[in-house]
């Protein structure tokens, strides 16, 4: 785990820790807002509150297992969740934010908690896109594009000359 931490540059490290911090805050707030939404007269908001509380608890276990030291399985669940690619985490967190919001649109507390949950997903999405851009090797400058163009033209001329 230490080799993974040391291989991150400053921008990636900020995204990783920022997403985990937002995930921890969003998880605790989702649990609180889920309990708050359970005290309602609407059946949809009651179900949405339960779902939001469960998603909040899972988010805290996935992102901040030190908040749940009383459970022995949190380390295993955390290690399992760290094997997910960032893009998959982004999709899961954004879908988890949409489901309770569809059930109870009228609650402002639901919007706030689901917004933080979606923000965590968006941070993981940015991290996944950044990883993809870094792995492609394109730094975004014109020199790399010009280098690729000359390589393409060289390969075309070698194909033409062989025939």
UniProtKB/TrEMBL annotation:
This is Calcium channel flower. The keyword Nucleotidyltransferase does not apply. Keywords: Membrane, Transmembrane, Transmembrane helix. Belongs to the calcium channel flower family. Residues 136-146 have a biased composition (Low complexity). One of its GO terms (biological process) is vesicle-mediated transport. Its main location: membrane. GO terms for cellular component: endomembrane system; membrane. It is found in: Endomembrane system. Residues 134-163 are annotated as: Disordered.
């Amino acid at each position: 785990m230490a080799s993974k931490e040391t291989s991150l540059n400053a921008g990636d490290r900020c995204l990783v820790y920022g997403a985990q911090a937002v995930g921890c805050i969003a998880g605790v707030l989702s649990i609180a807002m889920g309990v708050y939404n359970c005290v309602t007269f609407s059946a949809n908001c009651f179900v949405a509150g339960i779902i939001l509380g469960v998603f909040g608890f899972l988010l805290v276990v996935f992102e901040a297992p030190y908040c749940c030291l009383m459970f022995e399985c949190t380390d295993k669940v955390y290690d399992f969740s760290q094997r997910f690619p960032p893009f998959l985490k982004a999709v899961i967190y954004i879908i988890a934010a949409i489901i309770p919001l569809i059930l109870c649109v009228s609650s402002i507390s639901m919007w706030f908690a689901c917004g933080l949950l979606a923000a965590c997903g968006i941070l993981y999405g940015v991290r996944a896109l950044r990883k993809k851009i870094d792995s492609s090797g394109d730094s975004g400058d014109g020199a790399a594009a010009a280098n690729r163009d000359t390589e393409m033209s060289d390969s075309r001329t070698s194909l033409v000359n062989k025939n």
